[in-house]
Design brief:
With about 425 residues, the protein is an alpha/beta fold. It has 2 domains: about 130 residues, Immunoglobulin-like (Sandwich); about 220 residues, Zn-dependent exopeptidases (Aminopeptidase), CATH 3.40.630.40. The chain is about 35% helix and about 25% strand. It is built from 10 helices and 16 strands. It has a 6-stranded mixed sheet with strand order 12-11-13-16-14-15, with helices on both faces. A hairpin with a 4-residue loop joins strand 3 and strand 4. Helix 4 crosses helix 10 and helix 8 packs across helix 10. It is elongated and about 70 Å long. The termini are far apart.
Length: about 425
């Protein structure tokens, strides 16, 4: 201890040994505080990871013990959302990281340099909706919620371009929405054709052994070829082989392709074998009749028949704009359905009241006009024979193509 320090301690009436002890304790306390601060900064805990939703919209939620500094950014090849955090300990149950909805893989881990990341690989392009951190109501920490929605490749690329001009990262708490105000360029009318069933889900079986998944695929391929030959449309199939697709994945494909029209092809059975003819369905919360409700119930069970766990949907309308979009889409769906019924009536047989409606999950894209076409009943021998006839299928394909042409022309004219 210096002479000056001894003099100061003496002037203050502090005995030299006590002063030295205080100095040692002060240094020790400062060291402890520094260690505790460093440990606190390094021990950000993330827990209670959850995902909910389907392949069109998925919400990711996780909890933190303290408020994190967080940023996110997009990557392509494959499409990914990267959530970047300070060094974090991930206390996640492995089962909660299993693929769900739009997310096909979750990878949490260290990124080095005092940072950690959660990488969410998705089923194709997507947009980020609300992304925010909010304090828990009980004061136990903070909650991060991120909403993903299926989007087109064009919208994803626009978001990447926007990201590049904003230092490649976006603060989560800003609630930024990827793809806002992205005008769609003028391009060919896009149609997504959905051959019903497939893979492990064979669908209905006819009295002569015809399997629904085979007929729907054969018909969809013929319709695609007819439309492509006209050179006026961009035509996509949800499946072009014998593969199983979830119902929400069929809707996701339509949205990611920015479809102007979605047509789902089916050929069901019915207990009353005398009933025959084609039917056109649109979506509605209330079914037009008992048979339409029964058909929707059977089709909506497709995922469960394939052994997939199905959770109750809770897709609330986010705002008044989305509600208006859904209403407009529904009006366009009905318009096309009526046009299609008119065309089919000139070439193939229809059942009584051929335009019906029910709550088909595959028709629930909020922004894509959608119809489900039952070509006929495989439970009826004559219908089954027609469905297997190239000549009959050719007439039905031409009628659908004519209806599409009329609908596309009206849409191009602003109608």
């Amino acid at each position: 201890m210096s002479i000056a320090t001894q003099a100061n301690d003496k002037a203050l009436g502090v005995p030299p040994p006590v002063a030295r002890l205080c100095g040692v304790l002060l240094v020790a306390l400062l060291a402890v505080f520094a260690i505790m601060s460093a440990a606190s900064a390094a021990k950000l805990d993330a827990r209670d990871f959850k995902m909910a939703g389907d392949a069109t919209r998925t919400r990711i939620v996780m909890h933190f013990d303290v408020e994190p500094e967080l940023r996110w950014f997009l990557l392509r090849g494959p499409h990914r959302l990267v959530i970047e955090l300070p060094e974090t300990r991930f206390v996640f149950e492995p089962k909660t990281l299993k693929p769900r909805g739009l997310v096909r893989k979750v990878t949490p881990g260290s990124a080095g340099g005092g940072k950690s990341r959660i990488v969410l690989a998705t089923k194709g392009p997507f947009e980020v909706g609300q992304a925010e951190i909010v304090p828990e109501e009980d004061g136990s920490g903070y909650r991060l919620a991120i909403d993903l929605a299926a989007a087109s490749e064009r919208e994803f690329e626009a978001a990447l371009a926007d990201q590049a001009t904003t230092t490649a990262t976006v603060a989560a708490r800003k609630g930024h929405r990827v793809g806002d105000s992205v005008d769609r360029p003028a391009e060919m009318f896009t149609i997504v054709i959905d051959p019903g069933h497939g893979g492990i889900d064979g669908g209905a079986r006819g009295v002569g052994g015809t399997v629904e998944k085979d007929i729907t695929l054969a018909f969809a391929l013929e319709l695609r070829n007819k439309l492509q030959a006209e050179g006026r449309y961009n035509v996509e199939l949800t499946r072009s082989t014998d593969e199983f697709l979830r119902l929400d994945d069929r809707v996701r494909i339509a949205r990611q392709r920015e479809a102007d029209l979605f047509i789902s092809i089916h050929a069901d059975t019915i207990s009353m074998k005398g009933i025959r003819g084609a039917t056109v369905y649109t979506v509605s919360d209330k079914a037009s009749d008992a048979e339409a409700q029964a058909l929707a119930d059977r089709e909506n069970l497709s995922d469960q028949l394939a052994g997939i766990e199905v959770q109750d949907e809770n897709h609330e309308v986010a705002d008044i704009l989305v509600d208006l979009i859904r209403r407009e889409t529904h009006a366009f769906s009905i318009r096309f359905a009526r046009t299609l019924v008119g065309e089919l009536s000139n070439s193939v047989g229809l059942i009584n009241n051929p335009h019906r409606f029910a709550g088909f999950k595959v028709l629930k894209a909020p922004d894509v006009p959608s119809v489900l076409v039952e070509l006929g009943y495989l439970s009826n021998e004559k219908d089954e024979a027609q469905l297997r006839s190239l000549e009959w299928r050719g007439k039905a394909v031409s009628s659908i193509a004519n209806a599409i042409s009329e609908f596309a022309a009206a849409r191009a004219a602003g109608g």
